[in-house]
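Notes to self after the Tuesday call (sharing in case useful).
The group wants a holo model before anyone commits to mutagenesis around the pocket. I volunteered. Ligand is alpha-D-galactopyranose. Logging inputs and output together so the record is complete.
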Amino acid sequence: MSITKRFYGNTADGTAVDIFTLKNSKGITAEITNFGGVIVSLMVPDKNGKVEDIVLGFDKLADYEKKGPYLGAAIGRYANRIGGAAFELNGIQYKVDNNEGENHLHGGFKGFDKVVWQAEVVNNNGTEALELTYRSKEGEGGYPGNLDVKITYSITEDNELRIDYHAVSDKDTVVNLTNHSYFNLSGHNSGDILGHKVMLNADKFTPTDKASIPTGELADVKGTPMDFTIMKPVEQDIHADFQQIQNTKGFDHNWVLNTNGNLKEKAAEVVDENSGRVMEVYTTKPGVQLYTGNFLEESPVVGKGGYVYRNHSGLCLETQYFPDSPNKNNFPSAVLKAGDEYKHTTIYKFSVID
Ligand code: GLA
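Result:
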């Protein structure tokens, strides 16, 4: 794999930002910027070897700086929601940014998607990787502890986009890092993902209230439109007469993975019969948010090449701790103890149907 670097632009406050091009020898190329850790483009061959960009994104850095739908970005300190924008840790009540009504979403008003990261190209056992680091200061977004975060991106010769997450805090805190890429396996400018087929290796999901805060229940998917254990097209149940789906105008839920953190077991798969592209997801995390881009039209999203993204133009598979874990004792804990290491890996693996 090779990595090259070029200047991307200056942020509004004049900080220079770069863009890194990661390439393997099989035709996969990713462009990643150290602004927000954003995956700006991901070029992947289809069944005929035609290479296309399969992630939604913007042309200009300035568009990533605006409030938006988190296209391609690194998300933290806590991905997804914290109910009431507050949690208790070691008997202390912490208030975090209430940037979505009364609740906290994706790290707050200025999450990890809106900051400039330090970038370095490193050599991991003979493979080059892009390492982004950021110090999230105590109190940023409302969180306790200075948190040193490292996200490492690489593209392997097995056609995997691999993202390794690492963090250490000097005080007990909560951490939940993910990537918010919107995939459209036919190409970012090809229309919607309703015909994509999805498999989620999950027998349960976490039902939510009207504000998308989990009730705490782990509900069986069996016999409901939330069942993706057998691959089905997104469109089959996206508007099903099922309260959970109607609340969120499509899928926007956390599934409880059966994989128990095993990176070798498939967590999710997406198949696009049009292009023949297949994406498998592997992760050490316990959950995955399938978000079908239900709110992309809330504000017009003019994307790369001037293409306007509509609702369902892309889908996200955000590997994560369950939403609102800091307030749910029965969910896997997202607490990171002072001095301990937070470590997670997520792999998006590409192939074509034969
Ligand atoms: C996540 C959430 C969605 C939405 C998007 C960003 O996927 O679950 O509800 O907020 O982020 O637009």
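Two things stood out.
The longest strand covers residues 341-352.
The chain has three helices and 29 strands.
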